[in-house]
Amino acid sequence: MTASASIQSVDPRQGRAFRFGRCTYANAEAQLVYAFDDGTELIERIGFPGASVVPAEREAAFMAALHLLHLIAGVSYFKAGVPHEIVVEGEPLDAATAEFLDQVYVHGLAEFAYQNKLDLRGRIRFPHGKPAHAPAAALNLQRRTLVPIGGGKDSLVSVEMLKRLGEPATAVWVGESALIAACAQRTGLPMLNLTRRLAPELFEYNRLGAYNGHIPVTAINSAILVCAAILYGYDAIAFSNERSASEATLEYDGQPVNHQWSKSLDFERALREHTTSHIAANLDYFSLLRPWSELAVARAFARESRYDDVFSSCNRNFRIRGERPADRWCGQCPKCHFVFLALAPFVA
Q1: Phi, psi of 225 (to 5 degrees)
Q2: Cα–Cα distance between 70 and 66 in angstroms, integer?
Q3: Which of left, alpha, beta for 243 (phi over 0: left; psi -120 to 50: alpha)?
Q4: Is the pLDDT confidence value at 1 over 70?
Q5: How many CA atoms does the CB half-sphere of 185 hold within 13 Å?
């Protein structure tokens, strides 16, 4: 039976359990393995260029970070079927980790649940059985910061702030977007481009009618960057999420729905707590722009002109699949309209 035929015979929505299989690291690539019941293995691959060897003194912390990445990145596949049982193979989770993951999946998939008219509160329960985790140790990490670049104005405001403060920083991004690469290059900072390849079977599941919708991408990218910070030796990860990211978009079935939940203060605090308690006591994770409003970010960005011809906040540029605008801005989507209005008071 071909792989395609095997996939067509499986409907993730009829699955009994979603399984977290193995996660491995070799030759600068992490492999994260998942499956519905005992079906086709879904293998996601994350590339960390030039990091084929994990420093021995940081190996335990890296494996803990990789395990967390495996658990968080599984949300991309879990949502295809949303089965009632979650199975984590290997060593059981402790209660704190299971509770954190329950939050990531329930709140991170809240918009997805609203779109698909699902109630996730009874379906998502990460199993646990391990005693409380021993406190993580401090690592020998250099004072320098990974700054995720998304192609839009917010991260570029953070970059210029860190440059003015004289803080050593590296522009980092996940994926193969030429637009983001151009922004990163324009910063003048050292650059780090990580790769992420989703299991191709996921797109086939979607084509055949699996559940689909919004996932907490920032949570996944944050977990990737925790791994990267340990591999390459950085003591901080500075995102650029402003205060409105914490506000719910709407309410559904008595639950707040926040499209940007994985950019919220709640997620930031939860991931930082988990990182310092379970992975590395001195690895900081935060948002540099958290106290700012959207208009404050727009005003600060308008003072700079060096990024005018390379930045874009148009969502259509960042689709995994589908048509993209011929230019950096489609001029049609709500994000294009919003950024135009936000900058209008501050530019000619």
Answers
A1: -70, -30
A2: 6
A3: alpha
A4: no
A5: 8
